[in-house]
Amino acid sequence: MKAATRFIARPLSLVLLSAALGGCSLFGSSSGPKPAALEAQVGSGNARQLWQTRIDGVQFPLSVATAGQSFVVAGNDGVVQALSAADGAVLWRGEAGAKLVAGVGSDGRFAAVVTRDNELVVLDAGKPAWRKPLSSTVSTAPLVAGERVFVLTVDRQVMAFDAADGRRLWDLRRPGDPLTLSQPGVIGAFKDTLVVGQGARLAGVDPLRGTLRWEANVATPRGTNEVERLADLVGPMARVGDTLCARAFQSAVGCVNAERGATLWSRNTGGTRGVGADAQQVYGVDGSDRITAWKLGNGDTVWSAEQLLNRRLSAPLAVGKQLLVGDYEGYVHLLAADTGKTLARLPTDGSPVMAAPVLLGDTVLVATRNGGLFALRPE
């Protein structure tokens, strides 16, 4: 299957496949640049696989949720499961009743997904609770928090629903850009504030009323036409204390102080996947799969690594002193966080890693396009 970056033109609502943005997808194109050869003499290092299981497959932008001691996942077929992080045992299982385009968000009890029919479906401990048709297309997994379900549409409208009964509580509409990106955006929580991506800005929203508290630019859109000025924030977002970091599509990586709602720094750089971070650095993958580390405090470049060029990498995950990224052949690469040098490489099932690896405690979960779920422990 070939994937291409999509963007939505408003108000005509045309879905375009952009040749100009070729290679921006997770899979890339078979006619693109040749992927770098795997480095020789790289073993599994101190990482090991704890368990593995399988779901139907993942051909939509999956976001793996973590809640308590469980991972919450969903497959193409709409089956949603909570899996024990310790051994992969199924804690509960439910069905959305249709194939999915986005998911999954969960607080452990409630889980939310969006179907291809553009319905928001919420399960309560695996049992169908309610479903609502949505008026706008969704590519981002819903957020479930504070007994509410928050939905971010591709035109960056934000909607809030009561998690128990599906009542629509509020919606926030901002002045729209001519083009919006049909790619997972940014939605998360910081203390008592809902944080969403609104074009090239991070916005802090009152989750009870849907009113804007603050907004801060991650990028300043530039260009001579609407395509060149497209700079929507793409997920995942990274949080370290009061600092939130995100990538603006093909434009920049930047960090914001969420307590003050102020931009800390922004660096011009291409790329289409979200970022990872730890207490010292922010990590991102550009359009050629060059990996760069920036200082968390001021955005200065620490290192760049080119050994995985054109391997269609996932967004990165920082774990301890290591950085994890998945590639199009299902390998999980472990890099030294201080230098970018390769430490280890672990195989999965040979199909592309479909989402940023997710950490819960000391366990990392990796999901592949063929539906493989692999729990790893870097040590």
Structural features, described:
Strand 27 (291-295) and strand 28 (301-305) form a beta hairpin. The protein has no helices and 35 strands. The protein has strands at residues 6-9, 14-17, 48-54, 65-67, 70-74, 79-84, 90-95, 100-106, 110-115, 119-124, 127-133, 143-145, 148-152, 158-162, 168-172, 179-181, 187-190, 193-198, 201-205, 212-217, 233-240, 243-248, 252-257, 262-268, 276-277, 281-285, 291-295, 301-305, 317-319, 322-326, 332-336, 342-346, 358-360, 363-367, 372-377. The protein has 379 residues and is mainly β. Residues 1-29 have low confidence and may be disordered. The protein has a domain at 62-174: Lipocalin (Beta Barrel), CATH 2.40.128.630. Strands 3-35-34-33 form a four-stranded antiparallel beta sheet, with no helix packed on it. It has a four-stranded antiparallel beta sheet with strand order 4-5-6-7, with no helix packed on it. A four-stranded antiparallel beta sheet has the order 8-9-10-11, with no helix packed on it.
